[in-house]
Every structure is written in structure tokens, then in C-alpha cells.
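Two proteins, back to back. First:
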Amino acid sequence: MLLVTPEAKMGWRGPDFALPDPDGKLFSLDQLKGEKGTLIAFICNHCPYVQAVIDRLVADANALRAEGVNTVAISSNDYRYVPADSPPMMKQFAKQHNFSFPYLVDEDQSVAINYGAVCTPDFFGFNAAGELQYRGRLDDARMGEATKRNPELLNAMLQIAKTEKGPAKQLPSMGCSIKWR
């Protein structure tokens, strides 16, 4: 089922969480916050939309880290329903795509629910104060050829890092629905 992210209330503060990575190491939002902002990406391994953009997301996350913006990826899919999204497969996916950021397991799906995440990928960009400033797509290439793309999320997060405010115009992300229990 293809979904489009709903418009979000800018300035909203994302609730704290403590989630494990596939090895069981716990991470809290406070630990993961960047000096100039934080990007939370709800993704999963099996989604064709995520697979199409994952290398661009990793490259953009690396560029953002150099500017003081940290990234965290969260998988909230019910991996009992979709075994390709299980923690061992998450670990393999992260290694295959050279993740430089934590990839966390939202097994009870409470973080996705609390954030209002609906699809994979679903991006939430927060400023240094923890206020939501971006809820849009990665870029205009989406699943297509990305040699010429407008890196909307990267540009938005760089703007947020400099000004604390996101762009006025934001186009929604689209992807596969989160596989709820």
C-alpha cells in the first residue's frame, strides 16, 4: 500500500525514546541529538522505496553529520510479518549500505505511533531545540535516476542547521505503509 506523509505541525517536539540497535545496545533520543539538528528516518529493509533511495540517504546523512546534524534510522515494521525486516537483516542492510548512523528496532511500534510515522521512508527533521522543522521527501528523484536531483531533505536540514527553521515549501515523502501488528 503506497502512502504519502501527512502535513506535520512545525515546532512540534518529538518525544524521547530508548530503542535498541540489532545487537541490543540502547540509544535514547537525547544521546542521538546533533548539535545543530537531528534527522529521524523511519525506514525498513524490504521496501522498494527505501531500497531506491538508501544510498542517497546515507550520502546525505554523511554530509549532514559534517554540519552538526545527526541522523538515526528506525525500523518500526512488524518483522514477524516481514522477516526481511528482522534485526539480523537490519544489521546486514546497514553494513551493506555503509550506515554511519544507528539503525534502531522499534519492536512495539510505540515510537512510530508517537511520531505519527506512516510509511517508509518517513523523514522528521528537527532543529537544535528539538522542534520539528521538516517532514518531507528525500529528493525529487524518488525511485528514479538520481544523477540530477534536488536534494530537498539535505538542503532543508542544512537550512535548519543555520537558521533553526525549515523551508516553507515541503513536499511529502511517499513509500510503503508501515507494517503494523
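And the second protein:
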Amino acid sequence: MVIDFLFIIKAIVVAIVEGLTEFVPVSSTGHMILVSNLIGFQGEFVKMFEVVIQLGAILAVVVLYWQKIRDSVIDFFAYIFTKGKKGEVGFRFGMNVIYGSIPALIIGLAFHKKIKTLFNAKAVVIGFIVGGILLIVIENMFRKNKRAVRDIDKITVIQSLKIGVFQCLAMWPGMSRSASTIMGGWVSGLSTSIAAEFSFFLAIPAMVGSSGLDLLSFDYSLMNLTTIISLIVGFVVAFLVSLVVMEGFISYLKKKPMRIFAIYRLIAGIIFGILIFKGIVIV
């Protein structure tokens, strides 16, 4: 069987894009749609490929925050089995992740097929620009809150639910799940770095759930040696790049505002809008 190396190279490019953009507020889905369009990496397999490499990015969260996840899971069940005598902190954190995931779960299950119809270049451009404007406005209004929560274990149920509602904005491609949850964190009274970290944890159930629905509906008869290699390499590349980007992103947020990402989104939205108008990027 002949291996299509050009196809694999394109897969690596898209995986790098996923790793670079999944956890920063610029929309990984939007970038993958636009880049895939530009390099001619399209088709039914590509839809599944994008889902799988997003799971690679999620694995980076698990690895980077393994101790927090492990301790929280242990505390969660300790609290249940001891009837609240042990593990209160981990139980509360776990419940906050569950509460924050509920809005996206409800909307995602109810409108999954309709949401997928939005995945096109024109919708991404709109998401880039609208999301960029919202980032600037909400950051200016809430980022300098001196009473902001600076401990991820001090997040309340109401704050978790508010962030979960904002996460639903990410169902519009180009809006960015990271940007949506961080904006929700600001509005809810969280510091920027804590909002970003909480968005990492919310990504686990949100993306695993969404990916599961997509993988169940994929036609696996389309698989061949080239696509199998692409999946494996893409998963590993997305994981490694995400791991590096996440650590750098949190360090950046502790010192700098997110305005630079908003400006990037606006510029990218305008550029891609022009490319669509000129017919270079197909809607």
C-alpha cells in the first residue's frame, strides 16, 4: 500500500495549529478549519482527525495537572464514602467542574447536529471578530477586580455555572472555548490565571463528550495506512505542542493582559474575510 507523505505532512501542520491554539483564546477549531481549507486538507477523514488531535491536546491537560486531578478524584470519592468527613476540597472542586459542564452538555446534546452545520470559514471569521471585540470589552470591565478569586479551590457553585454558560459561546466556531470560559471567569469574579486554569479542567469533559459523539458517527471504512499514520502522528504532535503552550500561556497571563490575543483575532478575522471575499478561501 502506497503511503501519501504529503497528506501526512498536512496532518502534522494541522496538529501543530491545534496544539498552538487549543488553550489560548484564539479558537483552535476556527484555525483548523481555515488552515485545512488553505492547504487542501479536507474530507470526511479530516473531520475525524480534528476530533482525535483535540483529544491529544486534552491529554496534555491531564499530564500537566495530573497531581491536581488525581488528588481531586481521590478526595471526591473519599468525601462520598466518609459522608463528608474527608476530601471536602477535592469534592467541591470536582462538583464545580461538573456544574460548569452542565450548560454545554445540555446545549451540545440538544443541538449537536445544528452546531456542526456552522463549521465553515464564514462562521469562523464572524467568531474571530465578535470574540475579539468581546475580549477587549469584558477584560476592560472586569480584569482589574482586586477581589478576584486567586485560588482555584475557592470557586463557588454560582461562579462555575456562570462560566459554564459562557462556555456555550464556543459552540460557534471561531469564538474559542478558552476565550469564552476566561470571559466567564472574569464576569464571575476570577483572576485571569485562575479563569484560564479552570478552563483547562472544563475542557476535559466538554471535549471528551463532544469528541465521543463525533467518533461514534464516523465511517471507519475510510481508514487506510496513510490515515492511520496521520492520526497517530497528529495526536502526538498536538499533545506535545499543547503541553508547551499551556505552561507558557499561564506564565504570560500572570504578567500581561489578553489584549494582544484580541487584536490578533480582529486582524486574522479581517484578513480571512478578505480571502473569502476574493474566493481564495472557500466558504
